[in-house]
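Practice problem 4.
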């Protein structure tokens, strides 16, 4: 099978004989430190899944490098301050400040319509030149973007009693994301995607009832857009998100990238066969500190408990603290489990 066929078979739980598909995520903080090791990882375990982009005909307001020390401005005008090379910084001065309790400044926030200025034909040409499984070049993140705009603590409080102008802005933000996904859904890509980091180490960051009220309907729209155009749809979230797993499955999400070991593999077994676990191998403890035997055991546990003629993708993040030899060992073990 080609990479594209392999990923589709895995998502649809009909991968009876072939290997587990692969994808490596990496951050400059790791790849710049280990260039030779990164090159070997990529050469020996080529990715089956890629993100595909396209040039924009209209320039965005983005400025700077998100991974460099200093300041970086995102597409909405949020300014990030970074004190560590190779990772992304934080917003220290949100656009909706502490004193703007009514979100009066929301009308001045830039909506990056420029991201709709790509040409569908450009995407389709790039798609035709690869047999890898292609995910779209956009990634809606309503919860996180609201935090960048308002500040995390203030947003959490606002969600308890939302100002009318905040709700108006959320609709405006959601409308933009839907239009962005709609345009990408008209290209040849295999899947759409979205993300939001929802979990702390132990629980959801907000009351699950608030998630259901405000964000589940947004995610339903994203998933429905994908499926109505014959696309798969993927989601990423860090942290412990056990409380929303049943909702994501109910909505029809095809694959979720989440911190399996943070939640506990046994706690995820009830969802085996109902969704694809798009990685990952633990980057908090195993990738930085584990022995080869511990890496082997971790990969084998994921496979034994979550694989169901598919439903698992061999994904991990090569980021801060990760040892390249542990990342390499994880992919070796996946390969040994299904060496076809």
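Answer key:
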């Amino acid at each position: 099978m080609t990479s594209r066929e392999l990923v589709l078979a895995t998502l649809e739980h009909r991968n009876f004989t072939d290997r587990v598909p692969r994808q490596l995520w990496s951050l400059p903080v790791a790849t710049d430190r280990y260039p030779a090791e990164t090159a070997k990882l990529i050469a020996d375990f080529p990715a089956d899944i890629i993100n595909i982009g396209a040039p924009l005909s209209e320039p965005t307001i983005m400025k700077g490098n998100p991974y460099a020390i200093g300041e970086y401005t995102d597409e909405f005008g949020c300014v990030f301050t970074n004190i560590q090379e190779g990772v992304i910084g934080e917003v220290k001065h949100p656009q909706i400040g502490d004193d703007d309790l009514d979100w009066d400044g929301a009308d001045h926030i830039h909506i990056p319509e420029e991201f709709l200025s790509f040409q569908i034909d450009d995407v389709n040409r790039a798609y035709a030149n690869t047999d890898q499984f292609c995910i779209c070049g956009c990634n809606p993140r309503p919860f996180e973007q609201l935090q960048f705009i308002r500040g995390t603590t203030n947003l959490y409080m606002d969600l308890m009693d939302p100002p009318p102008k905040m709700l108006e802005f959320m609709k405006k933000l959601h409308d933009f994301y839907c239009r962005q996904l709609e345009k990408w859904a008209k290209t040849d890509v295999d899947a759409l995607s979205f993300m939001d980091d929802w979990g702390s180490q132990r629980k959801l960051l907000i009351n699950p009832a608030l998630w259901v009220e405000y964000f589940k309907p947004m995610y339903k729209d994203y998933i429905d857009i994908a499926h109505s155009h014959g696309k798969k749809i993927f989601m990423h979230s860090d942290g412990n998100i056990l409380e929303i797993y049943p909702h994501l499955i109910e909505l029809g999400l095809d694959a979720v990238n989440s911190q399996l070991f943070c939640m506990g593999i046994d706690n995820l077994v009830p969802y085996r066969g109902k969704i694809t676990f798009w990685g990952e191998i633990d980057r908090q403890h195993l990738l930085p500190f584990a022995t080869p035997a511990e890496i082997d055991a971790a990969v084998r546990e994921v496979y034994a408990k979550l694989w169901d003629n598919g439903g698992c993708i061999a994904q991990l993040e090569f980021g801060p603290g990760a040892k390249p030899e542990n990342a390499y060992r994880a992919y070796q073990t996946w390969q040994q489990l299904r060496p076809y």
